[in-house]
Write a structure and sequence with these properties.
The protein has 274 residues and is an alpha+beta fold. The protein has one domain. It has helices spanning 6-27, 48-58, 61-65, 102-116, 180-189, 221-227, 234-254, 259-262, 265-273; strands at residues 77-79, 86-87, 90-97, 119-122, 125-128, 139-142, 147-150, 154-159, 161-166, 171-174, 197-200, 204-207. Strands 1, 2, 3, 8, 11 and 12 form a six-stranded mixed β-sheet that branches. A two-stranded antiparallel sheet has the order 4-7. It is globular and about 50 Å long.
């Protein structure tokens, strides 16, 4: 081998390794969840295929309009008439949850889809619920350290604890703390401090999960996103139906903007349902 070519070979090798790493982290399929592998992806950024898959589901209006409006009577969802909750001149959507919580895990799928209709996320990461709780290792995403940009709403997520037990306190390692305003909102409308808790601008609330986490138990992130494109799936019916309900709640706060979202049949049907 010509020694003059060695530097070029080394450079090409490095390029191949970097390219393979990018492909794996951004596009490679994810493993089926098990107790041994569930937490492999915890804390890693969502790859491009998951992001694009969720945005495609969120903005597939034909799919959304084919979902039942029965979820307007979801358990834990209610209308309220509080002082409008706003931030930076826009209605505020406040989410309070925790990474260990399987009910938060399944709810985040629906909430993320609804929010993607009004803006865009960056910095979302893979997460699973606790391996030691009911419905262990439920695949989800975490809002911790994410950024959300929207012309219509402000989204404030608070993930109060990780999914890792802390033996010193016999609970989970703390993550984010509520500020005084958030604590007041939670105590006013959620006496039992149930999570997930979602306040849609003080006009409606979700307290606890409307969806059974067992429904997606054992499925990985790619599988869940793939299923959500199937209108005949019960998982789609419940997660996307809940996302539709949240979308209608947000439209109520934005003055039905954007029209491309808030004029859809499913939003009008939910509004009429009450």
């Amino acid at each position: 081998m010509n020694k003059k070519n060695l530097p070029y070979i080394a450079i090409i090798t490095i390029i191949i390794i970097v390219a393979a790493y990018i492909f794996y982290t951004q596009f490679a399929p994810l493993p089926h969840l098990s107790n041994a592998t569930a937490n492999i992806f915890d804390g890693q950024p969502l790859n491009n295929s998951i992001y694009s898959g969720l945005y495609n589901v969120a903005n597939n209006q034909t799919l959304a309009n084919n979902i039942s409006t029965a979820f307007a009577s979801n358990n834990g969802y209610s209308k309220i008439n509080g002082t409008p909750l706003a931030l930076n001149g826009k209605p505020e959507i406040l989410y309070i949850g925790a990474e260990y919580c399987p009910y938060c895990a399944v709810t985040r799928w629906a909430l993320a889809i609804a929010l993607m209709r009004f803006g865009s996320f960056s910095g979302l990461h893979y997460m699973t619920s606790s391996a030691a709780d009911v419905f262990p290792n439920t695949a989800t995403l975490t809002f911790y350290n994410s950024t959300y940009a929207s012309s219509y709403i402000s989204f404030i997520p608070v993930e109060t604890a990780t999914n890792k037990p802390d033996p010193a306190i016999n609970f989970y390692y703390p993550l984010q703390s509520l500020n005084s305003s958030e604590s007041t909102t939670l105590s006013n409308y959620d006496k039992g401090s149930s999570i997930p808790f979602i306040d849609f601008g003080n006009s409606s609330l979700q307290v606890g999960s409307a969806i059974n986490p067992q429904m997606i138990g054992g499925d990985n992130w790619s599988t869940i996103v793939g299923i959500l494109g199937n209108p005949n799936s019960q998982i789609t019916e419940e997660i996307l139906g809940t996302a539709n309900l949240y979308t209608a709640a947000i439209c109520e706060k934005t003055g039905n903007l954007p029209a491309s979202v808030c004029s859809q049949k499913y939003v009008k049907s939910i509004e009429e349902y009450g």
